[in-house]
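Cont'd.
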Amino acid sequence: MDVPAPPTRPARARATLLSLAQAAGVSISTVSRALRGDARISPATRRRIDALAAEAGYAPNALARTLLGGRSGLIGLVLGPMQNPFYPALLEELVAQAAERGLRLLLLHAGEGSMDDRTAQALLQYQVDGCLVTSAALPSRIAAICAGNDVPLVMINRVAREHGAAVCCDNAEGGARLADFLLAGGHRRFAVVGGNADTSTSLDRERGFVERLAARGVALACRFDGGATREGGWAAGERIAAMPPGERPDAVFAVGDGLAMGLIDALRAGAVPVGASVEGEGVEAAGAVSVVGFDGVAAALRPPYALTTIVQPLRAVVRRGLDLLLARMEDPAAPDELVTLRGTLHVGRSARLPAGAATGASHGDAGRETG
Amino acid sequence: MDVPAPPTRPARARATLLSLAQAAGVSISTVSRALRGDARISPATRRRIDALAAEAGYAPNALARTLLGGRSGLIGLVLGPMQNPFYPALLEELVAQAAERGLRLLLLHAGEGSMDDRTAQALLQYQVDGCLVTSAALPSRIAAICAGNDVPLVMINRVAREHGAAVCCDNAEGGARLADFLLAGGHRRFAVVGGNADTSTSLDRERGFVERLAARGVALACRFDGGATREGGWAAGERIAAMPPGERPDAVFAVGDGLAMGLIDALRAGAVPVGASVEGEGVEAAGAVSVVGFDGVAAALRPPYALTTIVQPLRAVVRRGLDLLLARMEDPAAPDELVTLRGTLHVGRSARLPAGAATGASHGDAGRETG
DNA sequence: TTGAAAGCGTTACCAC
DNA sequence: GTGGTAACGCTTTCAA
């Protein structure tokens, strides 16, 4: 192991402006300008340099660029627990859209636990241009750091307690819309399977639902705590299946699609028919329970769930989240802004239809902004 | 908007070595040394500088450091589709362990689609020290870039076709172990629900299972294509539930826990009892079907699934993946290495037990290395 | 149209 | 113990 023999490939140093300049017999300024498309470089020189760069596989050093005082192009990302199937979907969309805008995501945290100091420091050390947060629990910590260092922060699918920019779906309105749909379907006994008590998202959905019911003179028959997991939905479903048919609710709102899918599984396992049963093309089994959810994750929309749910305008949510962040990078003094996007009611077969309604249609102005 | 009035907070520039040096009345070398704990700085000076740095919220500029020729501390991360519940779990573990080692993850890609050129370039532009890949489809592209630029690359839960370092669970052995378990339980008609045909992971699991059966003189009764989704598991379950009890397999191996959970849901919805039925504490219902999975994701281990499955040693997989990567950063000429970790058989209640076996136990040497 | 040089924040080497 | 200085790769004046 002491032999200084070269490895298989001589490990050539990576190309830099200097190395290209020397190869081309020009100055590094010229190379820099040529590669950035500066107008005052002669076509001949440019071609020569371009060719050289391509051959060498030159990639500009983003770190050196940043040092000059420009943007780093890095966005800090803080993710909450990933059990909720909405978040993996959000992640995919976010990575794609960030890339389209030439931004890279620095993954600072994922999961339930809290962030250690070193990670929080990384946000500063790597000169992130901004920060995106989807976690319910962590924002306070990271928000403080961002605020103290002029790092813009935007929350996605969350609303900050005190301040901060955020984009999220109109949760209360969605809950209300679902209540309307179920009421129109002639349901009479309503239940809610709630989510995490500390997320504005869950609370708003439930509140919107319950208040709309109340406005129509209907009170909730029962309520279950579901947490954020499919497992929680199953537990609630088991309890509902165990109720005597007379007491059993005929319509259940699970505040997230994960919950709703677990709920449906439990009902089916308990031989309780769900919604306009999958078999019977609209012909509803006796004692069927209607289930509605919220989020519109792909797995919930398709069979075997065919969930009636509010579909979050995921692309628009992410797009506006990045818009907000970029705007705050331009102008750090921009006031806090809250963007609320209306979801779309997707009508599946997990809930009885109002007379005359058709399955599969989507209602509502997807992505229209309010607030 | 033309008023040049200062924003709420005067947006003080971030502290640097220079600003601290001026404040402390010393040179930047001294500040640098003091903050890095260099021995030859007088205690008094150090205290003064530490205090100043703390007050200013100083964070060293990782980009400037990297420019000096050191490590960037950045690891490029390429994630495949996130529907498989194993990947969100892997992501959480990876972020945590990377942070422990002082590494940050630059999220380059997530999802099914292919990577665009700009993203691939980012890998070079941000001077990543190495690259981690969990995707089945993308590696060839990114592998080429890494190989051409001396960026070490390690695959997690995947084995590269040609070359590259990788760490993954012993898939074939796990499949074989499950076959043994089911054979010992007295099952006679076996089925497999396969995964993506282009992932070594799925193929190895299935092969290990089938070959062990063959070695015991048993042939597969039937096989289903499940893809990588829970939905695929459900579809297979529906078809199994629809079979006449005589033809129906009495043991099914779904090559991933997501598949297995979907499968169980479908069986239960079809009133087909699963394993040592949840109700009957070991008392098995007539015509019960045993289901086993692979991965050991948290949701599958707990009720309502209580899946018998091979638990991947997730912590160890991630740890060894980072080990491999760090080793290759030290010595870029290190030969390709393949680390295979044995999983643990977790015995739940989704499959009939061999006579005398106990539920809940875990068997096997978790994380022992082979190859 | 091109080149030289300053400077971004840091570390390391060499003086003092 | 501490200070000066060069260097990392790049962009951007300012000169020519």
